[in-house]
Write a structure and sequence with these properties.
This protein is α/β, with parallel strands linked by helices and about 375 residues long. Helix content is about 30%, strand content about 25%. The protein is built from eleven helices and 16 strands. β2 and β3 form a beta hairpin.
Length: about 375
């Protein structure tokens, strides 16, 4: 029996099994087996036949966004509209057959947008070009999920399920579970809060499924068996996701309003170029990008060429962005902007900068 058949069997058994107190250990074990087989499926095959199949695109710019969706939802039209790249758009399915990169120039940042071929159901099992599409999506900083506003909600659920099954977690934080494999001593199990979804017996069963008999596990939140499996496998990617609903010119205004109020959702029309400016604003927000301007002593700030950094960075990161050797030479920095109590404020390496701050670095 191949891996695909095993996965199919386990999925059917999970669907058949009633969820109650008596079956929770059995379900936990099935989920652990399922995750194990899926991770085996995603490992590149050892045979030479897979060579040249992937479409690796060199990572460039300040951030990378993966454009994912079913065929014919308007991904290529969006890429052509937001970037200077032409991606073939037509009314038939599977117009795009490879990964097409484009660059969005916005607020001085270069954001790489990857138009990936349409995902079909079963992509995680390698149907269509699903496996390569998903491999590229794992390297992105943000997933832009393109959906057709005229189609039912089930489309979004199918896409989420495909990404979930290959270890891409959308709009979720990493589970707060400490896990370490030891050489001996059995299982050391603790929690800092009351656990309602798992207990020590289930944790032990799941670990045994992965041939782990000596480990330290500490739950810092009321997590599920799935969360524990994610932590054990340690190959999960946690990405922010923005759901972009296209073709809003074909539905009623009440429906547009309903969709727009859903969390992490933006409504657009690529053909009529509606609401694309708000999409770019939201994209900037979700990527946590900020601009920091530099200033030489006795000269005005350079507003034409700002540094594009991530939210939460410090003066140390600013120094690294300019030149690696600057940190060792820095005496202090002068900062103008919203991150200071008064302008200019004299700060050290650990000061956190905010969007549109102006920084002047003073060497020793």
């Amino acid at each position: 029996m191949g891996i695909l058949e095993k996965i199919s069997e386990i999925e059917k058994e999970i669907a058949r099994t009633q969820k109650n107190k008596a079956t929770e250990y059995h379900l936990g074990l099935l989920k652990a087996k399922l995750a194990k087989y899926r991770s085996q499926l995603l490992e590149p095959s050892k045979k030479g036949g897979d060579k040249g199949e992937g479409f690796d695109v060199l990572k460039s710019g300040d951030a990378r966004v993966a454009l994912i969706g079913f065929p014919s939802v308007g991904k290529s039209t969006l890429l052509s509209t937001l970037t200077h790249t032409h991606s073939e758009a037509a009314s038939y399915e599977f117009t795009t057959l490879t990964c097409i990169p484009g660059v969005i120039e916005y607020r001085g940042a270069n954001i790489q947008l990857l138009d990936l071929p349409g995902i079909i159901e079963g992509a995680a099992q390698g149907k269509g070009r699903g496996r390569q599409v998903i491999a590229v999506a794992r390297t992105a900083d943000l997933v832009l999920m393109m959906l057709d506003a005229t189609k039912p909600y089930v489309h979004r659920q199918l896409l989420e399920k495909e990404l979930e099954s290959v270890g891409i977690r959308l709009n979720k934080n990493k589970p707060n579970i400490y896990f370490k494999v030891k050489k001996g001593g059995g299982l050391s199990f603790n929690s800092t809060c009351q656990l309602t979804k798992v207990d020590e017996k289930m944790v032990q069963m799941i670990l045994h499924e992965y041939k782990i008999f000596n480990a330290e596990v500490l739950f810092r939140e009321d997590a599920t068996a799935d969360d524990l499996i994610d932590v054990i496998l340690a190959n999960r990617v946690y990405l922010p996701c923005l759901y972009v609903y296209n073709k809003i010119d074909q539905i009623s205004i009440q429906e547009v309003d309903r969709i727009a109020r859903q969390p992490h959702s933006v409504v657009v029309s690529c053909n009529m170029k509606l609401n694309l400016d708000f999409l770019l604003e939201t994209l900037w927000e979700y990527l946590s990008l900020i601009r920091v301007y530099t200033k030489k002593p006795g000269q005005p700030p350079d507003f034409d060429d700002g540094l594009i950094l991530r939210r939460g960075v410090t003066i140390e990161h600013v120094c690294h962005a300019i030149h690696r050797s600057l940190v060792a030479q820095l005496k202090y920095a002068l900062v103008w902007g919203t991150s200071t109590k008064y302008s200019p404020q004299r700060v050290g390496l650990s000061h956190t900068v905010l969007d549109e701050d102006v920084v002047q670095l003073i060497k020793k």
